[in-house]
Write a structure and sequence with these properties.
Oligomer: single chain
Helix content: 40-55%
Low-confidence stretches: 1-24
Strand content: under 5%
Mean pLDDT: 74
Number of helices: 7
Number of strands: 0
Distance between the termini: 107 Å
Shape: elongated
């Protein structure tokens, strides 16, 4: 009886260690692929694995090769990825390895930077009613007010580009037949 109790206790202890070890955070070196997954998830992408993260990050302008995903993440490579995302960073030790905590911090910084910068708003999502206004100034104001209402930064020229098709008063479009 004592032997069965001891065996059961040993099995429970082994399973407990196994479960905690499986759920333990990664303690080895951070790879480029690990960082890609962290950044993609921080940016709101559904990145279940490294390949999905690379595919998602390409949409944001990050160019990663599959061959470098298993490489250790250096400060230089992390800075390159961050710059591709539009985040200004420098490295004090380009060949130095990035720790797990620093990788997590950088991923969070990428997320915050993306939220603070002008989110790319496709022209199809901008209010086409603004294009019907009398001039470009009114269109720009309408567009800017729309961006503010949805929480997008207006520090870009997206509205100027969007409203460039509005013909200034007294001018005709190139496509209209001349009298």
């Amino acid at each position: 009886m004592v032997r069965k109790s001891f065996l059961a206790l040993a099995v429970v202890a082994a399973l407990t260690v196994f479960v905690f070890a499986a759920g333990a955070p990664k303690t080895g070196p951070v790879t480029v692929g690990d960082f890609a997954v962290k950044v993609a998830k921080a940016l709101g992408y559904n990145a279940a694995n490294e390949q999905a993260a690379v595919k998602s990050l390409k949409k944001s302008g990050v160019n990663l090769n599959a061959s470098e995903l298993s490489s250790r993440l250096t400060e230089d490579k992390a800075a390159e990825i961050m710059r591709d995302l539009g985040v200004k960073v420098t490295s004090s030790n380009p060949t130095g390895e990035v720790s797990l905590s620093k990788a997590t911090t950088l991923a969070a910084a990428a997320s915050l930077s993306a939220k603070a910068s002008a989110a790319p708003v496709p022209a199809t999502e901008l209010p086409t009613a603004c294009l019907a206004l009398r001039n470009r100034g009114q269109c720009d104001t309408c567009c800017t007010n729309y961006l503010i209402s949805i929480g997008v930064s207006t520090d870009t020229n997206i509205c100027a580009k969007f409203c460039s098709s509005v013909i200034p008063p007294g001018q005709q479009s190139d496509t209209e037949p001349q009298p």
